[in-house]
Each structure stands twice: as structure tokens, then as C-alpha cells.
Amino acid sequence: MDNLTVGVPLGMVQVNNYLFTDSSPKGWGAHMQELTASGIWTEQLSTLHINVLELKATKVFDLDYKPSATNWTTVLLLSCPTTHPLLPT
User: Fold this and answer.
1) Residue 57, domain CATH
2) What predicted TM-score, i.e. pTM, was given to this entire model?
């Protein structure tokens, strides 16, 4: 459990991508460079909190368009600022 409370310095990173997402109870959209994606939530997913939908949009985009290059750093630009505390550290 100690490892959950100890921070790890990130150091200097070179950002390769910026991922923009936006979600609503109806659907979601995301784009990174020339890649774009969007979708409509199922009735069950549409009832989730908007912060959860923002993170789900990020995950769906990441699973569909994960860059084939290794060692890429992506900055997430979410439309909901309260989502940040939900991101893993």
C-alpha cells in the first residue's frame, strides 16, 4: 500500500501528441493530429457521470488509434476540468 502514496517524478518529457476529447450524455468526439473519432453512447453508458464519459471517450480513442510508435507521450486535453482528479497518477 505504501506505493500508492509515494509520487514518482516524471522528469522532462517530449510531447508527441495532443489528444482533444469532448463528451455529452448523447455521445463523444476526439481528435489527435489528423485522426478523428466519434460515437454515440449506449443507453446504459449515457447515464454515467459526465467525468466518467470524458475518460471513456479517451479510452475508446486510445484503443482504436493507439500509435504504433513506442515511447510516445500524449497530453490529454479534456473539456471537463474536474476530470483531472480521476486520472491515474
Assistant:
1) 3.10.20
2) 0.66
